[in-house]
Amino acid sequence: MNAEPADQLRLLDLQALDSKLDQLAHRRRTLPEIGALQALETKLGQLRDVHAVSAAADSDLAREQSKAEADVDQVRARAERDRKILESGSGSAKDLENVQHELESLGKRQADLEDVVLEVMEKVEASAARTAKLAADRTEVEADRERAAHALAQQQSAVDKDVEFARSQREVVAKQVPAPLIALYDKLREQYDGVAVAAIVRRRCQACQIELDIAEVNAAKSAAPDTILRHDSCRRILVRTADSGL
């Protein structure tokens, strides 16, 4: 395939724009803000799980406290009934003695149950404080995540603007290159890691950085200006420029 020297030079412009687009795509995929946001989302997910467990523990302890208080109330009610029986003096001496013994047992039982209530109340207080701290931490991380998401969106928007500008430039350049040459260029880009064409600078291929051997130099010197040169080493299209040193 042959191509006018001007079209070959346009290929260099096209390659520069495509390389820039590749770099911008890589930059967008690897923005540090992405990692920061992902880390915060992971942390937030963990906090949500722990907070949910702590809140469930609060509910369990609240039920435990209610039950313990109900047990105390039940013993108090029974003791109050026994006291009224004793105060009334109704019943035989044996019955009143039994009531007195039961009242003493109820007193011990009430004291034990009240200790349980106090113990549960301490657990409730500690659990509630832990849950409140987790809720505050969650709110703080949620705010951090929102800020990180906003920062990422700003960086992505900036990259997208650069991409849009580079694409518009590429469209202009591509329209000036003959279709067969574009087809070859696109094919080589797919084959060789996105780099299809390179300039010869001081007898060195700028794609693979390998210097042309003497046979390649002589062939490039003798080739017609519209001849498409291919580098024997990397198979990219070579474009002669004023800095080629040929």
Automatic annotation (TrEMBL):
Q: Which Pfam families match?
A: CT398_CC, Zn_ribbon_9
Query: Would you indicate the residue range of the signal peptide?
Result: none
InterPro entries per record: CT398_CC_hairpin, Oxidative_Scav/Glycosyltrans, Zf-RING_7
Domain C4-type zinc ribbon: where? 204-238
Source superkingdom: Bacteria
**Which residue numbers delimit the CT398-like coiled coil hairpin domain?**
14-192
Listed name of the protein: C4-type zinc ribbon domain-containing protein
Q: Tell me what organism the protein belongs to.
A: Actinospica acidithermotolerans
